Structure formats: C-alpha cells, structure tokens
C-alpha cells in the first residue's frame, strides 16, 4: 500500500480527527506552513520509508505516473524494468521527481534517541540515522581490557573510569568559541579529556549550542621517551574536522643560570573510534614523543606537563 497516493497537500487540517500528522491551529497561510514544518509528527514511520529497501525516503524522491514513490538508489535499479514496482504500469517517460514528498520528509522532525541523556537535536526523519551515528550523547564503551561497561558521559561513565580503573578525567568548558585549551599532567596509561565546546546548529543555523567531546590521550613508555596518541571516542560528525595541538616546553638551568630551552609541538588530525573493537594500536596512530632526556632521571615516571588545544571546525 502506498500511503501518499491520494494525499491532498491542500486539504484543510481537521483538529478533531486523529491521523498521522498534527498541526497546531494558526492564522494565515504562511503561519500554517511554518507551524507544519515545526510540529508535524508521524505516527506511522513506515509511511516515510521506501517501499523497496525500507530505508527512510530522502531527496531526491521519484514517483510513477500513479504516484508510487521510491528512493533514488532503488529508482536507479528500476530504470531498466520500465515498470512501477507496485502497480506494474509502464513508466514510458521514466519516473518523475516528487517534490511534494521531498518537502514533507524534510519537514518531519523526530527526537534523538539520546534525548534523555542531554541531546536536544531534532533531526529530520530522513536524517535520523546519520545523526544517531554522530551524536555526542550516545553511550560509550569502556576501553579497559576485558571490561564490558557501557555508559553515558553524563551518567556513570566518568565515575567508572576514575573509580574502577583509576584513570584521570579532566573537563574544560569553552562555550565562547570552538577551541578548548588544557594545561595538565599526563600519567602513563589512559588520560581522558572532556571538551565542552560551542557548536553551530544543524543545517547552518545561527543557533549556538554546546557539545561535549570525549578524548583519550594514551601515554606509553618507549625506549627513548614517552609517546602520546590522541583519539576521539564516540562518533565524529561527518561535517567536522577535529584538530589537537600538543605542546611540551622545557627550560634548562644550572645553579639558577639559564642554559637554554626546548619547545616541542605537534598538530594532530584526530581519528575517531567507538571502541567497540577495543583501543586502536597506538603504533598505528600519530604519536607525540617527549624524550626522556628532557624529563630528567628522577622524573621519568612522573606526570608530563603538556598543553593541549582542541578545536572542532566545520569542513570547508
């Protein structure tokens, strides 16, 4: 059954009837149109899916002469048959674009499944899967060996890291721009940073919201020094570029006399992992190495003082 075959987009809304859409009453055509975009709710989500692949319909959407719609990938597969997949009527001139359905599926908004954990996004129904894959409020897997704990950043995850494993966690808020700067001591093993950054709204919106990103800085002892790798845990938005700058400085002196200084700095394009398969091999990642001779004989097991700058920018 094709639910949109006989749908009249110009019909008046009956506020007393129960259907698959709800639009609050308002005055004026323009106001009604804006309200529909904001408040339309689908009770039967299958009606918004392609009848062939059962995936959410998203532009471009095509229809036969009768009005049966298909998504773009399925449309390409049907081109060689010359017939509609439902009614079997010959599509002599090919499928036509269904602009009304395209506007409809882009207007219907659904709450994120992680709304109870702080996500306020209302993605379009056709984009909910891509949002779910990139949502920073999704649950995280513990990177501990043989540890199956899964938790949320706002509920139990950080307590698990510090209480069960003794891993340090540091949070930095900077909601004025898209860069967070830390000055911390990194211990051997896992160190976690939470960057609470300002981000623009979806679709180029001017609305500014805050998003939390969880980073793992893994410090390993190497023959000549300590190597630091950086990993974004979770799901990185496909439209974002995550950069991290690590800086280590050291001043050499003797009897209060300045002898010289060292400055090490690296800019890292941060990779992302949901840790479902464990922590990636650090040797396969970019590593920032601090030589042992700069730390001194008595400080090789102590925390390394590092400056960390993390930025989340839109891809050009």
TrEMBL record:
<feature type="region of interest" description="Disordered">
    <location>
        <begin position="1"/>
        <end position="24"/>
    </location>
</feature>
<comment type="similarity">
    <text>Belongs to the SINA (Seven in absentia) family.</text>
</comment>
<keyword id="KW-0808">Transferase</keyword>
<protein>
    <recommendedName>
        <fullName>RING-type E3 ubiquitin transferase</fullName>
        <ecNumber>2.3.2.27</ecNumber>
    </recommendedName>
</protein>
<dbReference type="InterPro" id="IPR049548">
    <property type="entry name" value="Sina-like_RING"/>
</dbReference>
<dbReference type="InterPro" id="IPR013083">
    <property type="entry name" value="Znf_RING/FYVE/PHD"/>
</dbReference>
<dbReference type="InterPro" id="IPR013010">
    <property type="entry name" value="Znf_SIAH"/>
</dbReference>
<keyword id="KW-0862">Zinc</keyword>
<comment type="pathway">
    <text>Protein modification; protein ubiquitination.</text>
</comment>
<keyword id="KW-0863">Zinc-finger</keyword>
<dbReference type="GO" id="GO:0016567">
    <property type="term" value="P:protein ubiquitination"/>
</dbReference>
<dbReference type="GO" id="GO:0061630">
    <property type="term" value="F:ubiquitin protein ligase activity"/>
</dbReference>
<dbReference type="InterPro" id="IPR052088">
    <property type="entry name" value="E3_ubiquitin-ligase_SINA"/>
</dbReference>
<keyword id="KW-0479">Metal-binding</keyword>
<keyword id="KW-0833">Ubl conjugation pathway</keyword>
<dbReference type="Pfam" id="PF21362">
    <property type="entry name" value="Sina_RING"/>
</dbReference>
<feature type="domain" description="SIAH-type">
    <location>
        <begin position="107"/>
        <end position="166"/>
    </location>
</feature>
<dbReference type="GO" id="GO:0008270">
    <property type="term" value="F:zinc ion binding"/>
</dbReference>
<dbReference type="GO" id="GO:0005737">
    <property type="term" value="C:cytoplasm"/>
</dbReference>
<dbReference type="Pfam" id="PF21361">
    <property type="entry name" value="Sina_ZnF"/>
</dbReference>
